[in-house]
Amino acid sequence: xxxxGRRVRELRAEKQVTQKSMAASLGVSAAYLSALExxxxxxxxxxxxxxxxxxxNVIWDDAEELQELxxxxxxxxxxxxxxxxxxxxxxxxxxAKNIHHLEEEDLRELLHxxxxxxxxxxxxxR
Length: 126
Hints:
This protein is an all-alpha fold. It has seven helices and no strands. It folds into two domains: 3-71, Orthogonal Bundle (434 Repressor (Amino-terminal Domain)); 86-121, no CATH class. Helix content is 66%, strand content 0%.
């Protein structure tokens, strides 16, 4: 499951909407929607995300969050480290090889730590 798929599933549950009825309203198959929720499809297009936002009448910060989740929900991520240090290459390869050995809590902690460091080092948002 992807972060975007999890959030769409949560929205459907909150609104008590079935995949079948949502899919029909959005003009896609229920199979596509299921695959999207379960991480068996890549990130949805910007246009499709906008249709989901409209479908659930999501506004402001919640709409922005859904758009960000869609961007970060590529289940087959590729990391190009060709212009980075050997440490970046080792880290990306080690994580790719071993991520399935980590517990959910470990994943949450690592993600949180990386986000803190990235945001601390960013200068384009200041």
